[in-house]
Amino acid sequence: MKLSPGPLVLILVCCHVALAQDPATKAPFVPEPILQNGQVLSLYPTGSSRLKQDRVHEAEKYNTSLKNKSDKTLNVINIHNPSIEVHLAGDEPPNTGAAVIIAPGGGHQILWVGPEGGDFVAFFKKQGVSTIILRNRLRVDGYEPKTDAVNDAFQAIRLVRSHAAEWKLDPAKIGIMGFSAGAELSAPTALFFDDFERENSDPADPLAKVSARPDFVGVIYPGPTPFTQDAATKIPKNVPPSFIASAGSGDRIHALWAADYFTAMLKAGVPNLEMHIYGNGGHGGGLTARGGIPFGTWTDRYIDWFKDLGFLGKPGAQTKAAIDVEAFAKKKEK
């Protein structure tokens, strides 16, 4: 998968490895947050059958930029104990109770936790929205994106929702946004949450009864979605609303994959579906202004959409999104 040409140069600038846990104890490695005040939680309990117990103690490897005289973490590899990094909204502006789980891209070879993760914390905090950065497992480290990484995304949704009361979140305002390869995780969460819940319903699992369904989904310059492989992929009756954005001809393959997702959803009549394909621009870029081109304002369009669906309202108030999902589900039942 094509990567953003700018950050790729920085991979070679500086690399460091976090201190590993003692291999003799096999204690899971738990990373430090990439941003100050972040809270890191492992997705799975110690000893989980989903983890490779012979590797879960290994330290993650990080890349930063000496060129820009910054120790800011740009990307990470060697993730064997997947986790979330939690940044909660404050009291000012008022906390909306909404939380966006961000799945960074990187072609399943690296994870751009900086430009497609940490950079969004301040952006969403200004809207009263909490940001959760997902560190999922990667193909380069021996994992399968369609199963291992997608399961990490579902587990993240469950884990965040299970902490809703503690973190002052609205359990009906928890969603996910994926970038590039990360969109290969966010797109399936809109479709296969029932399957995940059915396959992960062991009574011994403390999250077994927590919904894995996202309340909204972001699909940003995506990799291939399930509709690329099968245009007739079943869409659940309570499918959440989706926001899709990509450059057009300058990022043609990803734009086509975005169109696969949008077209299938549109044919099904899914409500509150929105897509922006921009005439100028290339792949990647995250939150950057991209030199002032329209594609650099896609985040403004996202906030317009988010507000219109009621996610920026007071916690506990039913959203327009939820009302429309319920109406669509009843229509599908007839």
Q: Can you tag this structure with a few keywords?
A:
334 residues, alpha/beta, Rossmann fold, eight-stranded mixed sheet, three-stranded antiparallel sheet, 11 strands, disordered N terminus
The helix content, as a percent range, equals 25-40%
Number of helices: 10
How many angstroms does the end-to-end distance come to?
41 Å
CATH class: Alpha Beta
**Percent in strands:** 15-25%
CATH superfamily: Alpha/Beta hydrolase fold, catalytic domain
Number of domains: 1
User: How many strand units?
Assistant: 11
Overall CATH architecture: 3-Layer(aba) Sandwich
Mean pLDDT: 92
Order of helices and strands: HEEEEEEHEHHEHHEHEHEHH
Catalogue the unreliable spans.
1-17, 19-23
Layout of secondary structure:
Layout (H helix, E strand, L loop, with lengths): L4 H6 L3 E4 L21 E4 L18 E5 L4 E8 L5 E5 L11 E5 L10 H12 L4 E6 L9 H18 L1 H4 L6 E6 L3 H7 L3 H7 L17 E4 L5 H4 L12 E6 L4 H16 L6 E5 L19 H11 L11 H14 L1
